[in-house]
Amino acid sequence: MSEAARPFALLAASFVLALGCGASRPTLAPAVELAAGPRAAPPEADGEGEILVWGTVNGRTRTTFRVAGDGQVLGEQSGVVLATSRGELVWREREQEVKLGGCEGGAPEEALEPGKVTQAWLAPRDAQARQVVVDPSSDGDGMAELSHGVELLGSVGPYLFVHESVYIFACGAHGNSVSSFTLWDAEAGKPLDLLLELPNKEALARRAEPMLDEGDQDPEEARKQEDLPELVQIMPVYGLRGGLRVDAQFMRGDCYACSDGLWSSYTRSAVLPSDGMPERFAPWSTPPVALVKFLQSRAGFVLGGWSRR
């Protein structure tokens, strides 16, 4: 499933959902007009220069730290801030209520709890121009329940790993959930399909097959499927000293009752470390000295990503 296959376009088998996200990529707002400059230079390995580091402290609110080349903290801010050649961009989310139309012969509209969808974007600190990353429609016709969420899984330099999930009850036998993944390039202001660039995808898919068989209600039937499991998501994972690896999530279709809840309804999926990463991530695979020193001084800090000013 590519990033272009948005979750509202993927609701399984029993019905087709049209919430405006469709199968198209999110519409971009006007370009951020900041000081022009080249694309962000690859990080140096010598630790010189300031970096922005974001993550969570003891599982609490996300925080971004401005860190000097020697590892000293120069400042901090709540939330996620990225350094790019467009300037510093802040990750924003906003939940919005959606009026639901309900089911024919069901509860009247006024008796229904409103649905909820989440918008997400990147913007300079004090400007209105933004990069719209997630912008779901507010059309709730034919639905009795709607819940849509966005999760920022992590970042590698200017690249954001964004997971979307939506649960909908649209008057069928049961509700359905659908997930999708977007890799967002904050430098270019658009999504990228980097799933195609993950090395050894076929070998990884074959390693995922026995993992998907574990706990399956009918593994023999699952093995009859000719297609290999599908790569649906990649995620950055940072070590205690800031080293980077990329995990890969593979999915295959299954019965509704067989779903494992790790991706969408009618699916089972497995996550495993990949043997490599897209080439464009290589400059961030080795942490700079500033990041290593910062992490050594911050017990309980879980790194989400870092970028160089």
TrEMBL record:
- Give the signal peptide as a residue range, or say none if absent: 1-18
Q: Does the keyword Signal apply?
A: yes
Kindly provide the name given to this protein in its UniProt entry.
Lipoprotein
What is the source species? Polyangium spumosum
Q: Which UniProt keywords apply?
A: Signal
